[in-house]
Amino acid sequence: MSTVPVVAVTVGDPAGIGPEITARTLAELDRDAPARGVAVGDPSVLRRALAAYGMHAEVRTVTSWDVDPVGPGVVLCWDIGVVGDREVPYGEVSPLAGRAALRSIEVATEAALAGRVAGVVTAPINKEAIWAAGSEHLGHTEMLGTLTGSTRNNTMFVVRGKKIFFTTRHLSLRKALDQLTEERVFHGIQEALTALRVFGHDEPRLAVAAVNPHGGENGAFGDEEIVHIGPAVERARAQGAQVFGPVPADSVFHQLLTGRYDGVLSQYHDQGHIPAKTVDFDGTISVTVGLPILRTSVDHGTAFDIAGKGIADHGTMRSAFLAAAEYAGYADRIRAEYGS
């Protein structure tokens, strides 16, 4: 592989904005970009996406991942041969679109596992579409876990270089609170510390967010901090880790961004998503940690309502691509930690 990393970029669901933001991001890369990107999808889907933006760029099919720099106006594409010349209606759930999204992920992941690309960047998929295509996976993370044989799949948000982790993820708030236990929080702390070390923080400082207002006020507003979160923090500190908390959630993210910590473990989905996306929506990217490969992703969905209109903002995809280029240097650490 070239000393400049090559990154595979899946186009996502062809009925959504994934092909548009992928095509535009790659078409705008300079020859001296920090990574070379190869779109993984059908060339016809990418050409349609460029047309939606009114961009006159070439979609050039490749059969090797060892690609030369091409500069602006060219999108390199690994043809997955699913859609072909058929047209996928924008904004509609389609089994054909679901098959294309699935195949794109499979091809990119196989290339990463074989070491032919330094990492994978994923555009958004539609869960109903992949289910209609026969997949039983809940989404990207579960599918990547199966493809790589990994069971340590966790989400790390990165915003302005700071990392946010999650004790619970895709659960209702009520169920998330029910699942907060000392063991689960302690496991989240351990996984967050490991990820911080893998991604360059040799002596990580991790804050653990409280779940109740003002950190529970010694039990006046809830006892999760006393029963579950606090004991988990103390266990980690007893092992010598720089772990702090429970820190009230209305201040912990400000402290993160001002440099007091390297990462924050949030307790539920929106607790971590809202501050990150409010601070920098286009600059917030998602990294799946626990996989033996590097995978970054946009942090939004398929946006069926605006697909094909040429108005989709590709800022988050560009950020995800640049993050993959930056983190490609940690590929050996990622494989060593999560490959067994």
Total of DSSP H or I helical runs spanning 4+ residues: 12
> Strand percentage, roughly?
15-25%
Distance between the termini: 23 Å
Count of individual beta strands: 12
Order of helices and strands: EHEHEEHEHHEEHHEHEHEHEEHH
Shape: globular
Instruction: State the secondary-structure class.
Output: alpha/beta
GO molecular function, one term: NAD binding
Enzyme class: oxidoreductase
EC number: 1.1.1.262
Protein name: 4-hydroxythreonine-4-phosphate dehydrogenase 2
Protein model, in words:
The protein is an alpha/beta fold. The chain has two domains: 1-151 and 286-340, Isopropylmalate Dehydrogenase, CATH 3.40.718.10; 161-279, Isopropylmalate Dehydrogenase (3-Layer(aba) Sandwich). It is 39% helix and 17% strand. The chain has a twelve-stranded mixed beta sheet with strand order 3-4-2-1-5-12-11-6-7-10-8-9, with helices on both faces. Strand 6 (154-159) and strand 7 (162-166) form a beta hairpin.
Write the layout of secondary structure elements.
Layout: E1 6-10, H1 18-27, E2 36-41, H2 43-53, E3 58-61, E4 74-79, H3 95-113, E5 119-122, H4 127-132, H5 140-148, E6 154-159, E7 162-166, H6 173-178, H7 182-198, E8 205-209, H8 224-238, E9 242-247, H9 249-257, E10 263-266, H10 269-279, E11 285-289, E12 295-297, H11 315-327, H12 331-338
Parallel strand pairs: 1-2, 1-5, 2-4, 3-4, 5-12, 7-10, 8-9, 8-10
Antiparallel strand pairs: 6-7, 6-11, 11-12
List the keywords.
twelve-stranded mixed beta sheet, 340 residues, 2 domains, Isopropylmalate Dehydrogenase, alpha/beta, 12 helices
